[in-house]
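[recover] target loaded
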């Protein structure tokens, strides 16, 4: 997972619902947030819900558990979640535990293909 900020203007989709999550997160907050994500996906028909995690505070395992459960809930509802403004420490913790999340404004993660220049010699057979 890469937590680098994308260059250029962020992609803003007015039809994507968003949820702001404020910390600290307790286990009692998880069912209500999961219900909110599920309802947003079902009522709007959107493919994703943006979770604004800028106000979560210092990340911990409760935060990782919450995000994993939100993603699972979204997948079961036929969608996914995207993270908005994650702290670099949260990105590092998610990477450490092996979880990957799409970040808002981030393009699909693929390696750039490097330009290959081949020289053709006059005696080379064609393929």
């Amino acid at each position: 997972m890469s937590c680098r900020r994308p260059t250029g203007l962020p992609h803003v989709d007015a039809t994507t619902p968003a949820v702001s999550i404020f910390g600290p997160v307790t286990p009692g907050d998880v069912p209500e947030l999961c219900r909110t994500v599920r309802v947003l996906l079902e009522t709007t028909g959107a493919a994703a819900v943006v979770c604004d995690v800028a106000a979560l505070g210092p990340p911990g395992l409760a935060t990782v558990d919450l995000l994993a459960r939100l993603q699972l809930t979204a997948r079961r509802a036929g969608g996914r979640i995207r993270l908005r403004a994650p702290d670099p420490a949260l990105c590092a913790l998610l990477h450490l535990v092996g979880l990957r999340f799409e970040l808002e404004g981030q393009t699909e993660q693929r390696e750039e293909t490097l330009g290959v220049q081949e020289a053709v010699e006059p005696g080379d057979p064609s393929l």
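[recover] notes: Strands lie at 18-20, 48-52, 80-84, 102-103.
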